[in-house]
Each structure stands twice: as C-alpha cells, then as structure tokens.
Structure prediction request, 491 residues.
Amino acid sequence: MTNLSVNHLLGIKDLTADDIQLIFQTADHFKEVINRPIKKVPSLRDITIANIFFENSTRTKLSFELAEKRLSADVVNFSSSNSSVKKGETLLDTVNNILSMKVDMVVMRHSSPGAAHFLSRNIQANIVNAGDGTHEHPTQALLDTYSIREQIQDLKGKKVAIIGDILHSRVALSNIYALKKLGAEVMVCGPATLLPRYISELGVEISWDVKEALEWCDIANILRIQLERQQLKYFPSLREYSLYYGVNKKLLDGLGKEIILMHPGPINRGVEISSDVADSKQSIILNQVENGVAIRMAVLYLLAQKRQN
Amino acid sequence: MEKRLILDTDLLQITINRLVEELIENHKDFQNTVLIGLQPRGKFLAQRIQKRLNERLNKDLPLGLLDTTFYRDDFRRRDTPLQANATKIPFIIEDKKVILIDDVLFTGRTVRAALDAMIAFGRPRLVELLTFIDRKYTRDLPIQADYVGRRVNTIKTQRVLVEWTDQGAENDKIWLVTNEEQ
Prediction:
C-alpha cells in the first residue's frame, strides 16, 4: 500500500483499513516535523487550499489552517457569516467562484449531511470533509483513533465506549467506522432519546447505563451535548443529564481499573465530563488536539500526492 | 538485465577505510563535526563510516538520519508515490561542521532537498558531502561531493545497486545494473 484509494476524504466509510494505516504512518512523520525548531516543510508549496466553513468552528478550522501552512500551501479562508451566501448564493456557485481563483483543494464544513459528497461530484478540486451536519467528521475520527493507537499501539480487540449525544454527533459515526475498520469493539451509551434507531445495524453494542459502559471499556470517548442541534427537548435538564450521564471522578474511582478518557471538544465542563476528570492524567484531550495537526497534514499531503500534474 | 560488479566486499572495505582517513585528515578529532546519513539508503554507509571512525578515534561520534521526502522538488511528478522515512537528529547542528553521507550521487536533487531539510534544524557552520558512488555526467543541479568512494561513467537508464549485509544481503557489493529493454 503506497497511496490512498480515494481522491477525496469525504468520510471514513469510504476508506480501507490500509488507507487509515497509511495516514497514521504519514502522520507519525509529520508529528516529528511539528516538533522541530522549524515546523514547516515545502511539500505543498504549489497547492492552493480553500477552507470553506458554513458552520462555526474553532479547533478544526485552526488545525486545518495550521496543517496547510506547515505544508507551505497557499491558504484562503471563507466563512458564510459575512459572505454572499447571505444574499442567496447557492453552494455550488459559491464554490465555483472560489475555484475560478485556481484553488486545488477544498476543506469544507457544512450543516447539511452529504454536502461534501455533492461537491466532489460537481467540481474538480480534492475535497476534504471537515464535518457535514450530523453525518461524518473523518479527520476527527482519524485523530481520535491515532491518539488511541499512540497510547495502546494496536486497537484490535480493544473496547471503546462512545458516551453522550450520539444522535447529533458526526464524530460518533466516523469514529464507529474507523474503530471497527481497525478491529476495535465499540459500544455507544447515552439516553435512549439520543441514540439513533439505526445504530445497532453498525455492529455496535448499546447501553443506557454510563457505569456499565465504563466498566466494559478500555477507552471512553465522551461527546458533547450538542444543544445547538437540538430542536426538541431530549432530556429534562442539563443538571439531570449530568447526574445520569456525566463522567466524574467518583464514577471512575469505582471502576477498579484505569481507562483512557477522550473528548473531541469543545467541552461543556461539569455537564458530560467534570473538570477534574477532563484535566486528569487519564485524559488525552490535549494529545488529540496536537495530533489533529499531524493527521490533517498527512491527509492533505496524501491527497495532493494523488493530484495529476 | 545485466549486472556488472563495481566494488566487491574487500574493495568496498578498503574504500570505506580510505574515506575515513580523508575525513580524519580534514576534521582531526571531530570535536565540532557531526555525521548525517541520508535516508533511506545513505543510512547504511553512514553507520559503517561512523563505526570505523569510532574505532580509529576511540570515540562515540554522533550520527543523525535525515529524510528528504517532504523537501523534494519532484513531489507529485514521479510515477511512484514517495514514502517518508524517519528523521532522527538527536543533536544540535547550529554552528557545527556537518558531513552529509549518501551512497549514490546521481541527479543531485536528493542532496538539494537534504540541504533544505537540514536548515530546518539550524544553521551549520560548514556542510560537506560524502558519497560512495559518484555517477558522472548525470547531474541536474550544480552539486559535487567533497569525498568520493568511486566515480563511475553511467547513462541515465542504468542504475547503481548497493547491497549491504545490514539489509540482509549475503555480502557487501555494489553493482551497475543495465536493463536490456532500455
């Protein structure tokens, strides 16, 4: 395996286990690069990348931008809040206008599931999906699994529990695909109202009891309650959610084993995870953020390698 | 495919010894000098040179490994994708005399990329290039080696095959390979 099997990164569903391993191996090298005195390599100096964000983002956007700059690409940024989208321009028109400025790759976040797929069928540039609605967030899943691999080397047979708002999470779906492709066992846990009906078809265990999930797993990936996506009331109050599903020190102390804790951020401190747990030694949340840059450098580098000259 | 032996095991060892003596002549006790082998294939020669230097000087000289993949100017222009190798430079190169070591000097593009890659680790006082085989008349860039094991006349379609026991070969040998169909 020397090259990716895909021309775009739309979702983990489209990747093979070999693709994921290749991205990890390449990220290992980039991790070494970003720890050097000069953290920049000239690999993508002839590539222009547009970051098109139709939804708010802090760490993903920063992480992509840093990755692009460390590969020496030219970067243009676009966010819908102060753009012609507000005047009624379509997605395709917006992107085609950007591409007319000779852009080679597009990193896009959009609130509609499938937006990245739509784009990849209609334009020439390589597309990287930076989150499409509640569908997929492939680079987040890659950096999550990469961070786990860093702690325990081989994911085969390891048990990972994804706890929280599965229904509104694109991280959960991409994580499930990535973990299963690498041979891990996955459990999802949350209130019944926040677990999608189809979830068992993905071959995952289901639990409604956070203690049971924590006892079962080696690694717990705790997700944020996405209040901005919740049109209805899925649980009575944040306080009650925290009481029944929040991961805190008392719960972890009662397990009799040490598990690895993850969170894709941003954290609602005191809701899905207590502050002392988020900042504890078991937590690899900041490793995830650091690895995000290396993973995104690897993805952009490998996709650029597939471009025709 | 035709294989012609350029250096056999004995001659290869003699050449390494001669290169080491040349290095000692210029760098004396290697007080402010470091060795950097270029990945992937310059590593084996660099390790041999370091071992011999250590024996001669009774020292433990630092050896770094440098990968040039991300610095190449032919990224996306090659038929086969480039795979990176590990870079390990466990010392400071700022103000040091650096000896870059590679097995074959061909177009000079790897050395150009290596100079770029090395600058990311600091500003050396002096950089020299040691190569085992210098393929004459094949350079794309104005780059020459300071220490050469052997100069050979080749055409572009030929390639130099370096076999090391460290890589699993039976003996250390260097071949010139000509593909018949070319």
